[in-house]
Amino acid sequence: MFAKDGEREIGNIFEEKERQIRTRLMEQLETAGNVSDEAIRDLIDRLVLTEGKDLSIDQMVAMSADLFASVRRLDILQELADDDHVTEIMVNGPDRIFYEKDGRIHRWPRSFSSPEKLEDVMQQIVGRCNRVINASCPIADARLADGSRVNAVIAPAALNGPILTIRKFPKESVTMERLVEWGSIPKEAADFLALLARSRYSMIIGGGTSAGKTTFLNALSEYIPKEERIITIEDNAELNLQDIPNLVRLEAKKANMEDAAEVTIRELIRSALRMRPDRIIVGEVRGGEAVDMLQAFNTGHDGSLCTIHANSCYDMLSRLETMVLMALPLPLEAIRRQIASGVDVLIHLGRLADHSRRVLEISEVRGMKDGEVSLSPIYRWNDEAEALEKVGDLYDHRKLIRNGK
Question: Which CATH architecture has domain 176-402?
Answer without folding.
Answer: 3-Layer(aba) Sandwich (3.40)
